[in-house]
Automatic annotation (TrEMBL):
InterPro entries reported for this sequence: AAA+_ATPase, ABC_transporter-like_ATP-bd, ABC_transporter-like_CS, ABC_transpr_MalK-like, ABC_transpr_MalK/UgpC-like, Mo/tungstate-bd_C_term_dom, NA-bd_OB-fold, OB_MalK-like
Gene3D superfamilies: 2.40.50.100, Nucleic acid-binding proteins, P-loop containing nucleotide triphosphate hydrolases
CC annotations in GO: ATP-binding cassette (ABC) transporter complex, substrate-binding subunit-containing
The keyword Oxidoreductase belongs to this UniProt entry's keyword annotation: no
CDD domains in alphabetical order: ABC_MalK_N
GO MF, any single term: ABC-type transporter activity
Protein's name according to its UniProt entry: Sn-glycerol-3-phosphate ABC transporter ATP-binding protein UgpC
Residue ranges of domain ABC transporter in the record: 4-235
GO biological process: carbohydrate transport
Amino acid sequence: MAAIDMKNIVKKYGDGFPAVNDVSIDVADGEFMILVGPSGCGKSTLLRMIVGLEDITEGEMVIGDKVVNDLAPRDRNLAMVFQNYALYPHLTVFENIAFPLRLAGVSDDEVDRLVREASKTLELDEHLDRKPGNLSGGQRQRVAMGRAIVRDADAFLFDEPLSNLDAKLRGQMRTEISRLQKRLGITTVYVTHDQTEAMTLGDRVAVLKRGVLQQLATPRELYVNPGNLFVAGFIGSPPMNFLPATVEGRTVKLPFGEVQIPEEHARKAEGKGLLIAGIRPEHFEDASVKQDTSEGSTFRATVDVVEWLGNEAYAYIPFEAGSEVRDQLAELERDLEGESMRSQLVVSLDGASRVAEGDEAEIWVDTSKIHLFDPATGENLT
Ligand code: ATP
């Protein structure tokens, strides 16, 4: 196993905008690192530079204690697991796993020993005679991983391995990959555009936008302390609400009313003029089902639509964004590929809430969780 250290990596195709722009990410030995971001953010290019399928324009790629910029892919001892698993349909599970060993000219006895050992770890030992066509998606994934384990690769590299699967299977596979990675303790870099995968699988997550690293942190840190507007909008589902805000003392003026925020947050936003407030849907509640509303603030709002999901309900409350921040929010929406609606507040209510469409409801908000962003730079000030 080995650590992977990307130092100020730049990738330019021709003389256009860099696909990867001065990115530094250190993946510790045994760590599960996620590269996430919307389409075109450069995550696959970065992965391909780790493996050696793409030249590095500037910067240093260090694997273990070696600079590998000029090493051929086969000399990097990494194992890439592709989206379609790249299994050979005409070969058995045994031969699929054995493939890299055969290529390396390993003796039959040794191949037999190594394949049996790997297939035991992966719980594939009962399926060694089957062909990939007769395996479940999960088993196929394990065969692909078996191929990597058998040759004792220093790291696993995954490029969107689950994107072709339906939601249920994707969930199962996610758990499986996580379990295996922990058990094997193999350094892993995993590319996805899916923030749920990023949050559930990664020890740490690198969020990229247009070739630039936005934030590198644990899933919890990204969720609790997003560094900027983009990360805040990208992480979390349904996404964070963004609203125009002005701060005076501890009072934040929002489209639905005024709330008090903690002094240390207010101080950081003092004198900054018009800001963008970010509030996650789950930091609201129906005041009538909330036991204690002494912390935070309440406000009255007319609910447009309610989606009841059993354990919770999403209520939609329209608001007017105001022209000053509309451009910034429109740009954010483009960056996030229009995943979120910015002209309505989405609030998550307890499943016991009886708030119905058209009601004027009393809504509670946890004001200690309100983020304030600089509209010009996107930086999180709180
Ligand atoms: P996706 O999720 O859509 O695969 P991505 O985040 O993995 O996107 P990359 O595939 O790394 O993004 O692409 C990053 C940028 O580099 C994009 O703007 C893309 O158009 C550009 N790009 C990628 N490969 C090439 C290439 N061979 N020649 C020119 N430009 C390229």
